[in-house]
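Board notes (copied after class):
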Amino acid sequence: MKALLNSLNEDEKALVRETGSGELAGMEEDGLVDLHTRIRRARDKYSKLYRRTASERVGKYGGRGKARPKNVRNAGKAEVFEDALARVSWYLARAARRSAAELKAERIEAARSGGSVPPGAGPPEAAPRTSQTTARRRPTSADPALSRRHAATRAKGARRQARRDSR
């Protein structure tokens, strides 16, 4: 792993250094999203480069097994960025869960403070109910429009599959 890190250029080393646990722990969610995007792009770059180079060398060497040792550096770089992406993803998920919990708590508090009745004030007045005829009715399975729509969807899928099969 150390040899792979030494094979990275200075910008890539700096990017990997940003994924240390000390640096990630102090980052906000927006910063983590930005770092996640940059790491993912680097990982994708080396993964594509590895696959492209490997596919070109298969014809030259006569097989994937023989072509692989000539392309180890790109695969290693992709693996380094994959590990870094996993670390950033973990911290990003943690930050997202934390902010979601904070948002949920804020919404619950706002709902309690805005719509709650102090204890002993009596039951809240009931809101006038709307009649059943004004509420929107969900279509049932016996609804002819619904069955036509389902039939059209199935037919469209069958046509699409027939086109694929005829290729």
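Comment from the instructor: The chain has a mean pLDDT of 82. The radius of gyration is 29 Å.
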